[in-house]
Design a protein that fits this description.
The structure holds two protein chains of two kinds. Chain A is mostly beta strands. Chain A is about 0% helix and about 45% strand. Chain A contains no helices and nine strands. Chain A has a five-stranded mixed beta sheet, with no helix packed on it. A four-stranded antiparallel beta sheet of chain A has the order 2-7-6-5, with no helix packed on it. In chain A, strand 6 and strand 7 form a beta hairpin. Chain B is mainly beta. Chain B contains no helices and eleven strands. In chain B, strands 2, 4, 5, 6, 9, 10 and 11 form a seven-stranded mixed beta sheet that branches. Chain B starts with a strand and ends with a strand. The chains are: A mainly beta, B mainly beta. Chains A and B meet through strand 3, strand 4 and strand 8 of A and strand 4, strand 5, strand 9 and strand 10 of B.
């Protein structure tokens, strides 16, 4: 699976949009981009994933660049409860394949009043 | 409700003792994973399994062992050979399939303290 690079930490004011970048310049054509978040001392929670089109769900939006070498997770109206570590990973999703599912160190998002 | 369950939530053991952490899922997922997390750090993969009776080493397998006798269960044994076993341990499971529907579901973790 391709390696990802994320900033170590970011701050965001409550009510504003939080834009979390991820670089995955070595991504392969069959690898999806997944985002998870981990609130302190809990198991990570799935947020969203995509292949090449932008995606939106009730939690967030995922913007993937046309060359697929980077992506941005957008939390449209951040709240204090969105304070967490956000992980971006890339993963092959082919029938019969379970890749290693490797996490990096993520981005620590601090939402402030 | 479907989900993935780790037990116990907190575990204390004396140094030199083996200890087994439980992970059970009723999601009918094929693949299961064990991670270790140290304070302020990311998740490091210990072992993973794609199918019953098969498993592969992750990045930090030394001092750990696993078994996968049933699809629903993937217990992790922390052996006395693990030099620094105190950590937060997380178990996850996923489908093995196409169309990207392989998001991981995580348990709530077991915090192991070795004294």
């Amino acid at each position: 699976d391709a390696k990802t690079t994320q900033p170590t930490s970011m701050d965001c004011a409550e009510g504003r949009a939080a834009n979390l970048p991820c670089n995955h310049s070595t991504i392969s054509g069959n690898e999806y981009v997944y985002w998870y978040r981990q609130i302190h001392s809990q198991g990570p929670q799935y947020i969203i994933h995509g292949l090449k089109n932008n995606e939106t769900n009730e939690m967030a939006s995922l913007i993937i660049t046309e060359d697929r070498k980077s992506s941005t997770l957008i939390l449209p109206h951040a709240t204090l409860r969105d304070t967490a570590v956000y992980y971006c990973i890339v993963r092959v999703a082919e029938s019969g394949t379970a890749s290693k599912l490797t996490f990096g160190t993520g981005t620590r998002l601090q939402v402030t009043l | 409700d479907g989900g993935i369950t780790q037990s116990p939530k907190y575990l204390f053991r004396k140094e030199g003792q083996n200890v087994t952490l439980s992970c059970e899922q009723n999601l009918n997922h094929d693949a299961m994973y064990w991670y270790r997390q140290d304070p302020g750090q990311g998740l490091r993969l210990i072992y993973y399994s794609q199918i019953v009776n098969d498993f592969q080493k992750g990045d930090i397998a030394e001092g750990y062992s696993v078994s996968r006798e049933k699809k629903e269960s993937f217990p992790l044994t922390v052996t006395s050979a693990q030099k620094n076993p105190t950590a937060f341990y997380l178990c996850a499971s996923t489908l093995v399939g196409g169309r990207g529907n392989t998001e991981a579901f995580f348990g709530q973790g077991t915090r192991l303290t070795v004294v």
